[in-house]
Amino acid sequence: MRQVYIGKTKDVFEIEKTDQIDHVGKFVMVFKDSATGYVLDKGRPTERVVFDSGYDTVVGEIPGKGIVDCESTTYFFKLLEEKNIPTHFIENLDERRMIVEPASLFSRKNEAKDLQGSGNLNNLEVVFRMSYYGSLWRRHPHKRPCAPLNTLVEIYSKGLPNEPDILMRDDTLVQLDIMKPEEVEEVKSLTEKVAQILCDEFSRRMLHLVDGKIEVGKRKVNGRIMVIDEISTSVFRACKGFAADTDGSCTSYKNCIQTAHKDGKRTIKAANLLTPDQIAKVFGFAHD
């Protein structure tokens, strides 16, 4: 197989005739154990690593993570396909490798390579938010955390290495020729459907889905927009013990949410938030 992409948590290969594998010309995603996150108290004796899929820096490895990510992505892709949501999933080769349809990405090549600081646009990530939490609260801290949202969809450009993702306005996406107006609307509509399917699936397991993210691309053979990359337990935030009042806000937020404001930075944490590994165990994805 010919390697076409080396990623932080996945590598991608193209299937060739000499590989003696069905689906020549399709891609194989290999899920790795590497994990992204950030370092607390960097350079100090108290330094520790925090694994968080919302960050783009690889900070270590979690043994078996690639297996769990592959299994959970397979599960959720099959679930979406059953609900008539198009994905790039074809089949699994083994516990770490998945065959997928090639996709055209919403990416752009760097047009100013001669200028320091310029870079490529490396596709988009689409975030759906069901509860008022995380970076949304940090940006707009006037509402009570854990208030309900009507499936808020936000589109981000994927950050360059060691840089955060960047929230994109709809008109910016159009003006910069990244997406057409109708593509923006289609992606948002598709994401809303995906979010509802996933919320229902989490609710069946007595979990509340706070937010999540997907990637989208266009099927190369017909240009149809579909869900791509991965939908593993690493891309979700979910909590246990969610109890909604008449307005849909969580009544447990005072015992769960902790916020701080220091040196101009806001932080928010939820005690009842599950780790990706804990979500995997609830769904039965965990491996020894």
What distinguishing features does this structure have?
globular, alpha+beta, seven-stranded antiparallel β-sheet, five-stranded antiparallel β-sheet, D-amino Acid Aminotransferase, Chain A, domain 1, 288 residues, 6 helices
Describe this structure in words.
- 23% of the residues lie in helices and 33% in strands.
- It has 288 residues and is α+β, with helices and mostly antiparallel strands.
- The chain has one domain: 2-Layer Sandwich (D-amino Acid Aminotransferase, Chain A, domain 1), CATH 3.30.470.
- The strands form four sheets. Strands 9, 10, 11, 12, 13, 14 and 15 form a seven-stranded antiparallel β-sheet that branches.
- A hairpin with a 4-residue loop joins strand 7 and strand 8.
- The radius of gyration is 19 Å and the shape is globular.
Q: From N to C, what is the helix and strand string?
A: EEEEEEHEEEEHEEHHEEEHEEH
Q: Compute the gyration radius: what is it?
A: 19 Å
Q: What would CATH call the class?
A: Alpha Beta
Form type? globular
Q: Tell me the domain tally.
A: 1
CATH architecture: 2-Layer Sandwich
Low-confidence runs of at least 5 consecutive residues: none
CATH third-tier fold name: D-amino Acid Aminotransferase, Chain A, domain 1
Could you estimate the helical fraction of the residues in percent?
Answer: 10-25%
